[in-house]
Amino acid sequence: MMNFVKRKWNKVYSVFFKKSKTKYYDEKKSLGIIIGSNSFIEKPKTLEGARYIQIKENSSIGHSSWLGAFDKYLNQSFEPKIIISNNVRIGNYACITAIDEIFIDDGCLLSEYVYISDHYHGFDPTLNTSPNNQPLFSKGKVKIGENTFIGYRVTILSGVELGKNCVVGSHSVVTKSFPDYSMIAGVPAKLIKTYNFEKQCWQNENH
């Protein structure tokens, strides 16, 4: 099933970019991002900290994305990284922001409007100031394991690690980590199924 979805996705991208006049960027014209061979990114809506962002080989990011790797905020300093590995497909309107590290492993497929962030705004009401003027905090790095499929409008928050070959249902909010071969969904996301290798199928957790 996953291979079928990826083949269809690749076909759509191939047809679209042969016909499209939309401006996009690759290893020769990279917007300052480190971009590997046969990879490209359509014109992003917002791009910050390009030198901390790496897209490896045979990967793509759709249009109107917000990619942000922030090394400074107010009086804070960070060492951010966003690494998008090989053979990754990320849909339109993705928002990926880091002050620590976000790593998306080989072969992942991310649908449109996905939000991934390794940090959040602090909010101390006694300061009597806007959240925009309060510090950023991180619970840790975000890692998406290889060949994982992230559905439409999924949110993945700070400190989350997803294993390989996971599936995340549309509109889910992922607040904690899950192991390899997990199918998760909900707000907050919960384990729905795991892959049974003996039966070669996804199996409900309450079987």
TrEMBL record:
CDD domains assigned: LbH_MAT_like (cd04647)
Domain of life the protein comes from: Bacteria
Keywords: Acyltransferase, Transferase
InterPro entries the UniProt entry points to: Hexapep (IPR001451), Hexapeptide_acetyltransf (IPR051159), Trimer_LpxA-like_sf (IPR011004)
Keyword Cell membrane applies: no
One Gene Ontology MF term: acyltransferase activity
Coiled-coil boundaries: none
Name of the protein in question: Acyltransferase
Source organism of this protein record: Flavobacterium crocinum
